[in-house]
């Protein structure tokens, strides 16, 4: 049986410590010779050997491409939970180069002498199964709650999951006896015996036993890779023929040569390995052997209904992420929303974006049969860049940031970059672009919606920095929209871009920004209406270099209501900064304060690393407000008293934002002085309080902060003339309404027709 796996070669090195660095040099020689894998036996009770895990760590640091692993790890002396974390850490540090061989133990006198528990052969198999369950549970960081495995020999009781390895570390099982072979078929990613320990016929019988166990467990035989430790003299052509036969007739795809001789390594990779690969490839072509990577049976069972996975364009297959794949848990959700998309497509250029849109159309996205989400950074508050059972086009790979013309401060930014990355690059030149308040936000989402940021009152919305945008339209055509090219599309992309096309790159003019003042102030806001009125007065009287944001969380029983302010002051002189902040400090009693001079990048580049792990559905409401009149302040205070929120933010607008004519961009509410957003846990209660106490004072809303699905939100977001103009543009560039799953501007009656 040939399973079609790629033919690879490894080396089995003795971890002797007589000359401490000798095994390391052998691993380096193996890497130089071209081996794929370097392995070391693991006998912790053998004082003449290095500790294998310590050796693997050292080898990883002294090599760069060769994969490494124990052959095989002595699980009775390596506590599984610790082994899981050690393996994940080493995989992360080595850039995904670890393979984990596991063994149930065999030298029980020595194991017992080291403090290990003596087990019968049957108990050893059970203990290894428990260990595998623990290892995989701790690597499953996308699962909720702590890891729990209540075994007879190994257990974890709510252990925190993680870290997640850099890649899906394969578990190769050293197995010979029937129960171990069955365990390999059920749970292993690879079978790793030594040819010298096998009797004639054992390889075929063992492989058949693994295949049978795999089938009973609902797996496909190809899911278990076949590795083999081999030795001998390789100058004999018969040896090459033997390896070819092992590959074609027994499915062995990774041959691990037991040698401590660099010359043997070099000769093997120069003479034997190429011949084996060539002869196997020739035979496979003649036989028509399928060598393409295939999903596991478990992954196939998770595929979404209504999506034809075989029809995924060739240009996107290599990077597509499906349910059940290793990358899926890190890519299915956004910052706030838990998602389970049917497939995530990851284009690397405009042509692939066009392929992705064509595929989405073929799956029924234009007809509404399949949900289509477009993702740049995945931070969006609305959570619309993920879904359940649909298609997501993830633009994360389109993340280049280039200076086009330094004399004009013109930069070109890919839609998949984040604003934290942009801030770091621009800061090297002493520039900045106002861009929200969080560095993890993707460029594409913000730069097509608005962008109410910390420098907004001085430099305008993010979209006001745009000079041109490259857009892949629904029909797959790539167009450049600017004031001179496709000017109507350029108008619409600045404020409603998600409806009109997929932006892949932006040309933007940055502003010179040096050190700025950044204050974090905490106020006693118990007299909330009076506080908000005073806050508004201070904001509206301040100069444009000042942009304040205000945050109030859920009230804490028995504690004074506290408002937390973040105020950016585009000035570097300490006295000037303090002068601008003084009116705000007088608004209400301060209960905390911190003021620093920093770079804009120091403020905005605040996103922690790691994948988004949002859960549930975000529940938010948004409003744009004019002046903070006593009536508005009382309405907001009453909303806060209602207690339906857990996060409430007021972002200052005005200033340069209002300098732009309302019909210059699709973001038309240029007279707004504030953007207000609230998060709640209960949709009904939040909507009731908002509709009664906040909405009557609103002059519009910011769609990127809105998750209310009821009719009327589009009319709140866009004035009648703007909405009519957008609908006409939509009919021109996306007549099928392919891009419909982001508050489509198509009229409700047209959607239902």
UniProtKB/TrEMBL annotation:
Cofactor: FAD
Domain FAD-binding PCMH-type: 337-513
Keyword Mitochondrion annotated: no
Gene3D superfamilies found in the cross-reference section: 3.30.465.10, 3.40.462.20, Luciferase-like domain (3.20.20.30), Uridine Diphospho-n-acetylenolpyruvylglucosamine Reductase, domain 2 (3.30.43.10)
Entries under CDD domains matching the protein: Tetrahydromethanopterin_reductase
Keywords: FAD, Flavoprotein, Oxidoreductase
InterPro entries reported for this sequence: FAD-bd_PCMH, FAD-bd_PCMH-like_sf, FAD-bd_PCMH_sub1, FAD-bd_PCMH_sub2, FAD-linked_Oxidoreductase, Luciferase-like_dom, Luciferase-like_sf, Oxid_FAD_bind_N
Keyword Oxidoreductase: yes
Pfam families, per database record: Bac_luciferase, FAD_binding_4
GO molecular function annotation: FAD binding; oxidoreductase activity, acting on paired donors, with incorporation or reduction of molecular oxygen
Family: Belongs to the oxygen-dependent FAD-linked oxidoreductase family.
Protein's name in the database: FAD binding domain-containing protein
């Amino acid at each position: 049986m040939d399973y079609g796996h790629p033919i690879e070669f490894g080396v089995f090195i003795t971890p002797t410590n007589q000359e401490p660095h000798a095994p390391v040099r052998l691993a380096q020689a193996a890497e130089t010779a071209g081996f794929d894998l370097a392995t070391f036996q693991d006998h912790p009770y053998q004082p003449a050997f290095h500790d294998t895990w310590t050796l693997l760590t050292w080898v990883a640091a002294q090599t760069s491409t060769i994969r490494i692993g124990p052959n095989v790890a002595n699980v009775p002396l390596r506590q599984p939970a610790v082994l899981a974390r050690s393996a994940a850490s080493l995989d992360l540090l080595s850039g995904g180069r670890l393979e984990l061989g596991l063994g149930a133990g065999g030298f029980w006198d020595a194991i017992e002498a080291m403090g290990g528990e003596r087990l019968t052969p049957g108990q050893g198999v059970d203990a290894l199964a428990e260990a595998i369950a623990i290892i995989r549970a701790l690597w499953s960081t996308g699962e909720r709650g702590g890891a729990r495995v209540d075994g007879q020999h190994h257990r974890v009781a709510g252990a925190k999951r993680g870290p997640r390895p850099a890649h899906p570390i394969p578990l190769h099982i050293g197995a010979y006896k029937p129960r171990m072979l069955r365990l390999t078929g059920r749970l292993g990613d690879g079978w790793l015996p030594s040819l010298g320990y096998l009797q004639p016929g054992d390889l075929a019988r063992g492989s058949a036993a693994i295949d049978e166990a795999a089938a009973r467990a609902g797996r496909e035989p190809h899911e278990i890779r076949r590795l083999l430790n081999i030795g001998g003299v390789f100058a004999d052509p018969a040896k090459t023929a033997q390896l070819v036969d092992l590959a074609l007739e027994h499915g062995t795809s990774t041959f691990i040569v037991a040698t401590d001789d660099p010359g043997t390594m070099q000769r093997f990779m120069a003479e034997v390995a190429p011949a084996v690969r060539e002869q196997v490839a020739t035979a496979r072509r003649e036989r028509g052997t399928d060598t393409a990577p295939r999903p596991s049976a478990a992954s196939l069972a998770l595929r979404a209904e209504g999506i034809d996975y075989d029809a995924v364009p060739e240009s996107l297959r290599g990077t597509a992420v499906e349910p059940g794949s290793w990358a899926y848990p890190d890519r299915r959700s956004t910052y706030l929303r838990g998602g389970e998309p049917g497939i995530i497509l990851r284009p690397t250029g405009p042509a692939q974006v066009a392929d992705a849109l064509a595929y989405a159309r073929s799956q029924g996205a234009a007809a509404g049969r399949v949900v289509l989400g477009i993702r740049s950074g995945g931070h969006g508050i609305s959570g619309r860049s993920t879904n359940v059972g649909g298609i997501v086009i993830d633009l994360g790979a389109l993340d280049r940031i280039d200076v086009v013309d330094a004399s004009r401060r013109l930069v070109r930014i890919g839609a998949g970059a984040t604003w934290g990355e942009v801030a770091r690059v621009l800061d090297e030149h002493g520039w900045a672009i106002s861009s929200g308040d969080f560095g993890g936000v993707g460029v594409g989402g913000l730069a097509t919606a608005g962008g109410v940021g910390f420098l907004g009152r001085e430099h305008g919305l993010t979209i006001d920095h745009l000079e041109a945008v490259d857009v892949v339209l629904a029909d797959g055509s790539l167009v450049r929209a600017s004031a001179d090219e496709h000017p109507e599309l350029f108008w619409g992309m600045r404020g409603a871009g998600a409806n009109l096309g997929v932006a892949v790159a932006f040309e933007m003019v940055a502003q010179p920004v040096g050190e700025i003042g950044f204050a974090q102030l905490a106020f006693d806001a118990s007299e909330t209406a009076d506080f908000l009125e005073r806050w508004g007065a201070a904001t509206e009287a301040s100069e444009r270099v000042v942009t304040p944001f205000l945050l109030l969380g859920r009230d804490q029983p028995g504690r004074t209501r506290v408002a937390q302010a973040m105020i950016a002051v585009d000035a570097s002189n300490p006295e000037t900064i303090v002068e601008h902040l003084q009116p705000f400090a007088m608004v209400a009693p301060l209960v905390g304060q911190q003021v620093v001079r920093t770079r804009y990048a120091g403020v905005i580049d605040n996103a922690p690393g790691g994948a988004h792990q949002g859960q549930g559905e975000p529940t938010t409401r948004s409003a744009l407000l004019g002046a903070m009149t006593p009536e508005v302040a009382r309405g907001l205070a009453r909303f806060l008293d209602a207690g339906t929120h857990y996060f409430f933010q007021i972002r200052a607008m005005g200033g340069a934002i209002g300098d732009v004519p309302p019909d210059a961009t699709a973001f038309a509410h240029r007279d707004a002085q504030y953007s207000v957003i609230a998060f709640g846990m209960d949709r009904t209660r939040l909507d009731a309080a908002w509709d009664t106490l906040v909405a009557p004072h609103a002059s519009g809303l910011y769609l990127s902060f809105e998750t209310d699905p009821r009719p009327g939100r589009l009319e709140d977001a866009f004035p009648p003339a703007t909405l009519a103009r957008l609908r006409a543009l939509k009919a021109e560039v996306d007549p099928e309404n392919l891009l419909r799953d982001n508050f489509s501007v198509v009229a409700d009656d047209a959607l239902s027709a």
